[in-house]
Specification:
Layout lengths: L5 H19 L4 H4 L10 H14 L1 H9 L12 H5 L5 H22 L3 H4 L2 E4 L3 E4 H28 L17
Antiparallel strand pairs: 1-2
């Protein structure tokens, strides 16, 4: 397992909006709104969540830690559904990219050092967390949602593959 690298996390954070855009750019609106199960998020809802987290989660928590710590306000994981209600996927991808770039530029201006990475804040569920863990979570969060979008689009398109379904592990067990 690799050790944490702020530079690698930063590079990943900058790349995520491009990866998301690549996944959803050519997807039909129906695929982006497809819900594979009750309570599961659509691709568009994931985009709402990603953009909202850029406003209400990552940087406010980083600021809290660097300002001396303390308890983080709870994050409303579905708050973006309200904030971005009615937005198109294209608009959401653009918003995510804009917000992410601004946040990474702010992170750069903070000039975070190794000593900063050990500073702590208080997560409302998990208790003490370090800045390093928070930034690692931020990058991991992107990969988790990219991994969430991809199978949803695979299954949305996969409804029409006929006998080739046997070749796609993500389609096995789907109707």
């Amino acid at each position: 397992m690799a050790t944490f690298s702020l530079a690698s996390a930063r590079a990943s954070l900058l790349q995520a909006p491009r990866i998301v855009e690549g996944l959803v750019a050519a997807a039909p609106r129906e695929a982006l709104a497809w819900r594979e199960a009750e309570g599961a998020w659509t691709c568009t809802e994931v985009l709402c969540h990603l953009s909202d987290a850029e406003i209400t989660d990552w940087m406010p928590r980083i600021d809290r830690i660097l300002d001396g710590g303390g308890r983080f306000p709870p994050f409303d994981r579905e708050g973006g559904f309200r904030r971005y209600r009615g937005w198109t996927a294209d608009a959401l991808v653009g918003e995510f990219a804009r917000l992410r770039l601004a946040n990474v530029e702010k992170l750069d201006r903070l000039d975070v050092t190794g000593a900063h990475l050990r500073l702590r804040g208080e997560h409302p569920e998990f208790g003490p967390v370090t800045l390093e863990q928070l930034i690692a979570c931020w990058a991991t969060h992107d990969f988790a949602h990219i991994a969430q979008i991809s199978p949803v689009l695979t299954r949305a398109f996969g409804e029409h593959v006929g006998p080739w379904r046997a070749y796609f592990s993500l389609l096995r067990g789907t109707a």
